Amino acid sequence: MFWIIIMLILICINKMLIMLILGDITMRFMIMNGT
């Protein structure tokens, strides 16, 4: 049970990091297209 909780926390952190990276890339892409 303990390992399942740790795995769920790691998955949540990975999803947050992926969303932040994708958001940063899309923002830069939009800025490059806008100028």
Automatic annotation (TrEMBL):
Superkingdom of the organism of origin: Eukaryota
Record keywords: Membrane, Transmembrane, Transmembrane helix
TM helices/strands, residue ranges: 6-25
Name of the protein in question: Uncharacterized protein
